[in-house]
Amino acid sequence: MEHIEHAQLLDTQGLYCPEPVMMLHGVVRKMAPGEVVKIIASDPSTERDIPKFCNFLGHPLLQQQQEGDLYFYWVQKKKPA
């Protein structure tokens, strides 16, 4: 796994969708374009919901991985067109 620098960390362990995605939406809204947020989640449905969030809103999903019962995502806020 390559190291990806992130400006924000969002720990959603113990929360169930849609709460992690709603929290991600709030964090991304406050970030500068190009900044990266690392998300830690324990809900397996984030494997579906976070990529859908990124695809729908155009934010690049730089990486995702699973380690044991935890899921990690690195999402970059899209840059203005």
CATH architectural label: 2-Layer Sandwich
Can you say what the CATH homologous superfamily is? TusA-like domain
Let me know the number of strands: 4
Low-confidence stretches: none
Describe this structure in words.
By secondary structure, this protein is an alpha+beta fold. It has one domain (8-76): Translation Initiation Factor IF3. Helices cover 30% and strands 30% of the residues. The longest helix has 12 residues, at 19-30. The model has no long low-confidence stretch (mean pLDDT 95).
In short:
The protein is an alpha+beta fold and 81 residues long. The protein has a single domain (8-76), classed as TusA-like domain (Translation Initiation Factor IF3), CATH 3.30.110. The chain has helices spanning 19-30, 46-57; strands at residues 8-11, 36-41, 61-67, 70-76.
Q: What's the arrangement of secondary structure elements?
A:
Blueprint: E1 8-11, H1 19-30, E2 36-41, H2 46-57, E3 61-67, E4 70-76
Parallel strand pairs: 1-2
Antiparallel strand pairs: 2-4, 3-4
Descriptive terms for the model:
single chain; Translation Initiation Factor IF3; 30% helix; four-stranded mixed beta sheet; 81 residues; alpha+beta; globular
